[in-house]
Amino acid sequence: MTAVASSIDGRADAASTSATSIARDADEPHLILVDGLSFVFRAYYGWNARGSGEGLTNAAGEDTSVLYSYAHTICSLLELKPTHLAVCMDAKGKTFRHEMFVEYKANRPPTPEPLLELIPKVEQLVRDMGVPLLRLSGVEADDIIGTVSRRASDAGFRVSICSPDKDFYQLLGPKTKMLKPSKSSKGDPFDPFTVDDFRAMHNNVIEPEQFIDFLALVGDSADNIPGVEGVGPKTALALLEQYGDIESALANAANVKGKRARESLLSEKGAASAALSRRLVEIRQNLTVPSLNEPLLPLDSLRVRPPADGGAAATRAFERYELDTAFERWRRLALS
């Protein structure tokens, strides 16, 4: 099957997905969970990078570039023929991580107003296309993905987490992989990233579950995670290879070779920063929020099926935004 206009970051490419290894096995349920906001940002900044006059607008003057890209992203995922699919979004406002650390993500610039205005339109289009959209107050999309993916894999599903975010490495497992946006402008729009890929990336030193401790040691500037001063990736890998986890590394800090890393790990400040950073970077896989407890959100509610209204809402949305190629592609995938 040929993807007519697979578009994640604003590009329109031909992409063959029929032969990909991601495609559904006949007897095994396959859940795809989308890190929804990451693709909104990716599309927005992808189009803006092209310069003025390069975006798409409808007859009413509405900017439809991001909607075009997002609709094609959903279609590209539908072409993988998952049995289950959901888009997970962050809730507005502070989360439990902000309560732990007031400076969490405080280094990020404000979201541009035009982008903020687009997000509700994207979310409504996703719903109109018949794809469940999950959001919980006070919780990040990462934790929804972590909880639902864990439940699904425990139930025998194959799980694909669609995101470019390295934070999800910690969730990789025998039945869970990532789908990263492809860096190539040709071919499949997503690149599978598996446990074996993770191991190779980290010199076969650590396993995915140790990536939590790795991030806690080195920090993460994208989320303003402090980490431990003086501990970089090379030192973190060496510590985890030798000691296995942060607790053991701290217990053996006096034996660490590098002076700066040793002093930081031996200090009260360093130990506290490591503990805090670990709590911040760990994706929750057991949320007790009522909306995520059975039977309020059975996995069957995420099953790919035609919209209950027969596609009427989606048809109106596609017509309003004049997304003709996306509409034809979606109709073929969702309604046939």
Mean pLDDT: 89
What would CATH call the homologous superfamily of the largest domain?
5'-nuclease
Distance between the termini: 14 Å
Reported by name, the CATH topology of the largest domain is Rossmann fold
Oligomer: single chain
- Say how many strands there are: 8
How are the strands of the largest sheet arranged?
5-4-3-6-7-8
Biggest sheet descriptor: 6 strands, mixed
> How many domains, as an integer?
2
- Structural class call reads alpha/beta
Low-pLDDT stretches are 1-24
**Helix-strand string:** EEEHHEHHEHEEEHHHHHHHH
How many helical elements? Answer: 13
Task: Tell me the overall shape.
Answer: globular
* Amount of helix: 40-55%
Instruction: Give the strand content.
Output: 5-15%
Indicate the CATH class of the largest domain. Alpha Beta
The radius of gyration is 21 Å
Going by CATH, the architecture of the largest domain would be: 3-Layer(aba) Sandwich
3D architecture notes:
The chain has 336 residues and is of the alpha/beta class. It folds into two domains: 2-201 and 298-331, 5'-nuclease (Rossmann fold); 208-281, Orthogonal Bundle (DNA polymerase, domain 1), CATH 1.10.150.20. Helices cover 41% and strands 11% of the residues. InterPro entries: 5-3_exonucl_a-hlix_arch_N (IPR020046), 5-3_exonuclease (IPR002421), 5-3_exonuclease_C_sf (IPR036279), DNA_polI_H3TH (IPR020045), FEN (IPR038969), HhH2 (IPR008918), PIN-like_dom_sf (IPR029060). Keywords: DNA-binding, Hydrolase, Nuclease. This is 5'-3' exonuclease domain-containing protein.
